[in-house]
Write a structure and sequence with these properties.
Keywords: DNA-binding. The chain is mostly helical. Helices cover 80% and strands 0% of the residues. The longest helix is centred in the first third of the chain and has 24 residues.
Length: 200
């Protein structure tokens, strides 16, 4: 990468960083391109040269957050076939990723403003959860047919996402041991279903 391209990439990353803070702290509606340009310290032309709209900038924020999330999920699934230990590693990593501060803040933002701005909910769904679901289906499909892999994915995602939503309403976050206990119970339930599939 040449010096010009490197500087352009750095400036783009700086813009996305500023936008991420703004979206998380002020919300989607209250964040403006003008305010981001002002914090950036350059002209509006600099911002517009990288992003043609607030929607495009928000997509970049989602891609940054989801990219990190997806890499962490992929890390535990790469070359993995279904097994109970592999399933436990997946569920633990999935929960850890969902409990991260930025993941919670992005999820909260989508929930709070997704009704007013359905485009951001659709953007988030296609760029985030859909990608993760496909990875988990692929993991289950190493052992089960497509229909059952889809069912097991839905069970896994609903349980872990539901747990994350539940603990957000509690006065304090669960300990690591409590999170592991939840994952162990979930894995036991899934393994029980898998045993029923094998017996039928």
């Amino acid at each position: 990468m040449g010096k010009r391209e490197l500087n352009k990439a750095r400036k783009r990353a700086e813009i996305v960083d500023i936008a991420t803070r703004s979206f998380f702290e002020q919300g989607y509606a209250a964040t403006t391109m003008s305010a981001i340009a002002e914090e950036l310290g350059g002209s509006k032309a600099t911002l517009w040269a990288h992003f043609s709209s607030k929607e495009e900038l928000f997509a970049a924020v989602i891609d940054l957050q989801v990219g990190s999330f997806s890499r962490d999920i992929d890390e535990v699934l790469t070359s993995q076939t279904y097994s109970v230990p592999a399933l436990r590693r997946l569920c633990m990593r999935f929960l850890e990723c969902l409990m991260r501060d930025n993941a919670v803040r992005l999820f909260t933002l989508i929930l709070s403003e997704g009704e007013r701005f359905p485009e951001i909910r659709e953007m988030f769904s296609s760029r985030g959860p859909e990608r993760v679901r496909k990875c988990i289906v692929k993991f289950y499909a190493t052992q089960f047919n497509e229909t059952e892999a889809e069912r097991l994915m839905q069970m896994t995602v609903s349980a872990v996402s539901g747990y994350r939503s539940d603990v957000q309403l509690r006065p304090k976050r669960p300990t690591k041991a409590e999170q592991e206990d939840f994952v162990d119970c979930l894995v036991e339930l899934i393994a029980s279903r898998v045993n029923l599939i094998d017996e039928s």
